[in-house]
Design brief:
It contains six helices and nine strands; from the N terminus they run βαβαβαβαβαββαββ. By secondary structure, the protein is an alpha/beta fold. The chain has a single domain, classed as Rossmann fold (3-Layer(aba) Sandwich). Strand 8 and strand 9 form a beta hairpin. The two termini are 19 Å apart. It binds 5-O-phosphono-beta-D-ribofuranosylamine. 5-O-phosphono-beta-D-ribofuranosylamine (GRF) binds next to helix 1, strand 5 and helix 6.
Length: 206
């Protein structure tokens, strides 16, 4: 069983998908801790309801570097092997990324490299998709490297953009796909079926 730590900042529907995936046996792992940088993140409540240790660590008073070190310590003392960023709205420090090299998974609500990187998060992504007029958007699960949304891509799935779509309707459609591919990526990771060749992720699909 892989020890998983989940970092959140918001509602936690991706976290909920992971909790359900573990409880149904789809994910051969155990969520050891959920950490949020926001006290009011409903995802903390979701963790509590699932009897998972959930902690709010206030970034106030820490430099960015120091805050990432505090997160790192909390994860390591719980023997976390895989870190999942489920709507975590901070870029991790170089030290954190190196400590957990190719063991940090992030979910992003677009088809990276489109509409990704600095400043592209949450509804801003969907607004940019509508403004640009693309016919397809989607979601991406990727390993985290030192950049913003630039790590090796694990899974992607497309979502059609319809004429009447709004930011809200797109967010809903993409979120459903996010839940699906995030659970699938963590499942594959826990089964040791994700390989890396340079920046290409090779999936061993039995
Ligand atoms: C999702 O859209 C995710 O892609 C983005 O932040 C949102 C988090 O949603 N990183 P939730 O907190 O998992 O519901």
């Amino acid at each position: 069983m892989v020890n998983i730590g989940v970092l959140i900042s918001g509602g936690g529907t991706n976290l909920q998908a992971l909790i359900d995936g573990v409880n149904s046996g789809t994910i051969k792992g155990k969520i050891r801790v959920v950490i949020s940088n926001r006290k009011d993140a409903y995802g903390l409540e979701r963790a509590r309801k699932a009897n998972i240790e959930s902690i709010f660590i206030d970034p106030k008073g820490y430099s960015h570097e120091k805050y990432c070190n505090v997160l790192l310590e909390e994860l390591k003392k719980r023997d976390v092997e895989l870190v999942v960023l489920a709507g975590f709205l901070k870029i991790l420090s170089r030290e954190f990324v190196n400590e957990y090299k190719n063991r940090i998974i992030n979910i992003h609500p677009s088809l990276i490299p489109s509409f990704s990187g600095q400043g592209y998060y949450g509804e801003k992504v969907h607004q940019a998709v509508l403004d640009y007029g693309v016919k397809y958007t989607g979601a991406t699960v990727h390993f985290v490297d030192e950049g913003a949304d630039t790590g090796p891509i694990i899974l992607q799935e497309v979502v059609k953009v319809d004429n009447e779509d709004t930011v809200e309707s797109l967010r809903e459609k993409v979120l459903k796909v996010e839940h699906k591919i995030l659970v699938e990526a963590v499942r594959l990771y826990c089964e040791g079926r994700l390989g890396l060749k340079g920046r290409k992720v090779i999936i061993d699909r039995e």
